[in-house]
Design a protein that fits this description.
The protein has one domain: 3 Solenoid (UDP N-Acetylglucosamine Acyltransferase, domain 1). The chain contains four helices and 28 strands.
Length: 267
């Protein structure tokens, strides 16, 4: 059964699956698709061309799919889509922008928690099981891999990739790519502080897998040579653990751009 509060405005082209609840004063624009058992609390706005999966919960005052914040975009410009997976929680005042380009999408995976005031810019990719604490700010064209955890008021520069099961400390300003499983804090430049043991536990890694990541961290960040030289040496070894390979790959890719942001190569 679909429940729509009398004060809500729902465009006739919107598609609501069974079990959807639309709260007071919500606005659902044209060509929006909302999956089963998704809940919208009061004052939620879903702009056009947004596709939402099942069992999501949008708390009060979220604005989802609003026009990207780009000066050259006209109000009637044709833009891309926003695609959201399943079982996500979006707390109060979360904002997410669609792609700025027609035919492309901003994507949010499944089982993510975005706390109060989080902003996700246009053309970002969020994978699964990500946690963003209050007022985390993500610029456009960023990629956030599975299990990454952001503490309050941390922020990411455009085109940055942050690896799976990593941890960004509060107030971190991340302006270059961050390998998986690591802890980063500070800003301009952010500094790698250690290995995210809690993240590895959340990922379900064995003690052997975790040991290999710790050893790789020491070889990458505690040797006298440069990080890039250490990564190249590690990459040449046979039988490299897949998680260590993921760490090395991000370092090597980020080195292809002068500011350490691999995705900016495709700008």
């Amino acid at each position: 059964m679909i429940k729509v509060h009398p004060s809500a405005v729902v465009a006739k082209e919107a598609q609501l699956a069974d079990g959807v609840t639309i709260g007071p004063n919500c606005v659902i624009d044209s060509y929006v698709s909302i999956g089963a058992d998704t809940i919208l609390d009061a004052n939620v706005v879903i702009n056009k061309n947004v596709r939402i999966g099942e069992n999501n919960h949008f708390f009060a005052n979220c604005v989802i799919g609003g026009m990207p914040q780009i000066l050259v975009l006209e109000p009637d410009a044709e833009i891309g889509r926003l695609v959201i997976g399943d079982r996500n929680i979006f707390r109060e005042q979360v904002t997410i922008h669609p792609s700025a380009e027609k035919g492309k999408s901003t994507t949010v995976g499944s089982d993510n928690l975005l706390m109060i005031g989080v902003h996700i810019g246009h053309d970002c990719t969020l994978e699964d099981k990500i946690v963003m604490s209050n007022y985390v700010q993500i610029s456009g064209h960023c990629k956030i891999e599975t299990g990454a955890w952001f503490s309050g008021l941390s922020a990411m520069h455009q085109f940055v990739t942050i690896g799976k099961w990593s941890y960004a400390a509060g107030l971190a300003g991340i302006n270059r790519d961050i390998p998986p499983f690591l802890i980063v804090s500070g800003h301009y430049p952010p500094i790698i502080r250690g290995v995210n043991k809690r993240g590895m536990d959340r990922a379900g890694l064995s003690e052997e897998q975790q040991h290999k990541i710790f050893e790789a961290y020491k070889r990458l960040y505690r040797n006298d040579d440069t990080l890039l030289e250490n990564a190249k040496a590690l990459a040449q070894e046979d039988g490299l653990d897949e998680n260590v390979r993921a760490m090395v790959d991000i370092i090597l890719k980020s080195s292809e751009h002068r500011y350490g942001r691999y995705l900016e190569k495709f700008r």
